[in-house]
Amino acid sequence: MDDDRTGDTGMPGDNVMVDIPMEELGIDEGIGPDATEVPVSKEEKRTVCESGICKVRDYLSNLVPEITVVVLMFVLSGIAGYFYTALNPSSSDIALEGLDELVELIMNMTPIEIMLFIFFNNAIKSLLAFVLGLGFGLIPLLFVISNGYILGVVTYLESKENGFTYIFLGIMPHGIIELPMILISAAMGVRMGLNVMNSIAGRYVDIKGDFKQGISVFFRFVMPMLLLAAGIETFITPLVIGLYTGII
After folding, report:
1. What's the Rg (C-alpha) of the chain?
2. Which of 35, 93, 101, 140 has the most other CB atoms within 10 Å of its CB?
3. pLDDT surpassing 50 at residue 32
């Protein structure tokens, strides 16, 4: 009598081939000699995260509410500066007081000196916006409002003289990096101010830990990006403007 287990040929002695799902044997298909993924424990993942860019990413993701408030204040103050200057052109003299002297100072510098001046100016102000946020978050908010207002004033004056395309090209190359870094610094300051108020209200907050984390993010992420923005503003933005205006 033929044995059905002998295989397709029905010949006794042939190797028996039986397809049994790997799941029934308790074998994971993703684990074996040829598997490329190595299981990583939660502790190992946490160690990698704390030493890498995801620490910055996680900090910024938790900062979204403060960033939203800061961006809103910046946009509204910019709109206010634009339309108030349109209605009262003479008010621009007060808003831009001292700007002419600053421009004259920069014009006498070498390109490297200009880049370093822009970088340190933005870095110091951004750091102060963060640190001084411990004073209930008022300083970073005033910092954002004043800068937004001045940008609105400049936008109106320059658009009237050179058009919006000129302004866009004069701000976008470096501003796409510089402005977010400045606003993030201000949002970090607002966060510290909220921490102080929560502490006064009797709620538990780790002010020291949050401050140390913010400092780490600032020097690890914000400052390098501000340096990159300063380099673009010094060497790339004038080139873009020159090509647009036909100077180059």
Report:
1. 30
2. 140
3. no
Query: What single-letter amino acid sits at 217?
Result: V
Estimate the crossing angle of helix 207-217 against helix 164-200, to 10 degrees: 160
Which H, E and C letters describe 88-136, residue by residue?
Answer: CHHHHHHHCCCHHHHHHHHHCCCHHHHHHHHHHHHHHHHHHHHHHHHCC
Write out pLDDT tens, residues 229-243. 999 999 999 999 999
List phi, psi (to 5°) of 228: -60, -45
Helices (H), the chain: 42-50, 54-61, 64-87, 92-95, 99-107, 111-131, 138-162, 164-200, 207-217, 223-235, 237-245
Whether residue 108 contacts residue 181, with contact meaning beta carbons closer than 8 Å, is answered with: no
Write down the pTM of the prediction.
0.78
CA 65 to chain CA centroid, Å, is 14
Look-up of token digits 């970088």? 119
Instruction: Please answer whether residues 231 and 115 qualify as being in contact, where contact means their C-beta atoms are separated by less than 8 angstroms.
Output: yes
